[in-house]
Amino acid sequence: MPSSFECVLDIKASLGECPVWSVDEQVLYWVDINAPSLNRFDPPTGNNTAYAMPRSIGSFALRATGGFVVALRDGIWCADAAGKLERKIVEAPYDPAHHRFNDGRADRQGRFWVGSMNEKRDTKTAALYRVDPDLTLHTVLTGLVISNGLAFSPDERTLYHADTPTLTVHAYDYDAGGGSISGKRVFAKFSADTERPDGAAVDGNGCYWIAFYRAGKVAQIAPDGRLIAEYGLPALCPTMCAFGGADLKTLYVTTARQQRSSEELSRLPQSGGVFAMRVDVAGQPEPEFGG
After folding, report:
1. Sequence spans of domains, the chain
2. In the chain, N or C: fewer CB atoms in 10 Å?
């Protein structure tokens, strides 16, 4: 399995997730769900600044007006540029005793899409939601366990989504104007129990890059569902991909070290770090939340 990943931030995060490249600042934002914290990583200097959060932070997006929209266990908040919470805009649509928000991102129309997860994993009570710029919450998909793999095609005609335990990524016809989805179909199906689809990103050619939690690899999948390549990295639990750098040709990947054995961490000591690899095709600039 080819690999050109190198660890660019050996921070040993418990559950690193949701890398988002800021084109304006030329930095990588990411979260440690368990710390919990929102982080700002400056690649040229290697400096990482952590903004502490009061509760688990599943994901976030940059805001068009500055700062962030952040999905915490107790609801969705707006935060300023230093990560300070300003106001809650959506109450948690679940029982936070055993559910929390998970994977999420903005679309080009300024909506924030975010899924939830059932931490007990015993019933299909998680969902995928959409928060519009007017701050209204809409339920898009139900009957999930762990919402993940959310991404959009460059032409805005396809939405990708995974319910991790099913080992399957589905594609949907996406109405960018109205924010609705239809035409569910299998995009990619995986066979090994370790091939658990986690966070994803799509490049400018429409290829879908997905991190496999517990498989120690990232896969590049063509728009027609063909597997193009797999890239290993020295951490067993990669969590999500993001394109960054001045040319958007650096693929960043966050990883986790939670619940890993001492033997594994001795063998893979950079688990929980942020990794990077140069690629041939640029990604897409990450959209911002319009609310």
Report:
1. 6-278
2. N
- The residues, any chain, with a CB within 8 Å of residue 220's CB and separated by 6 or more, are 207, 208, 209, 227, 228, 229, 230, 231
- Give per-residue pLDDT as tens, 65-106: 999 999 999 999 999 999 999 999 999 999 999 999 999 999
* Cβ atoms < 10 Å from Cβ of 229: 13
How far apart CA 291 and CA 134 sit, in angstroms, is 6
Question: Residue 4 — very low, low, confident or very high, per pLDDT cuts 50/70/90?
Answer: confident
Cα–Cα distance measured from residue 170 to residue 5, given in angstroms and rounded to the nearest whole number: 27
- Our CA angle for 266, 272, 275, nearest 5°, is 110
How large is the greatest C-alpha to C-alpha distance in the chain, in angstroms?
50
Structure tokens at 176: 């960018």
Question: Residue range 38-62: average pLDDT?
Answer: 98
Map tokens 């460059």 to a residue: 154
Q: Could you name the CATH architecture of 6-278?
A: 6 Propeller (2.120)
Res 3: pLDDT: 67
Give the Cα-Cα-Cα angle 40, 14, 270 (nearest 5 degrees).
85
Tens of pLDDT along 102-148?
A: 999 999 999 999 999 999 999 999 999 999 999 999 999 999 999 99
Instruction: List the catalytic residue out of 95, 198, 247, 280.
Output: 198
Token pair of 250 as six digits: 């650096």
Verify whether residue 198 is a known catalytic residue: yes
**What's CA 108's distance to the chain center, in Å?**
16
- In the three-class reduction of DSSP (H, G, I as helix; E, B as strand; rest coil), residue 131 is classed as strand
What's the pTM?
A: 0.97
How far apart are the C-alpha atoms of 136 and 134, rounded to whole Å? 6
Task: Specify the pLDDT at position 179.
Answer: 97
**Six-digit token string for 73:** 């266990």
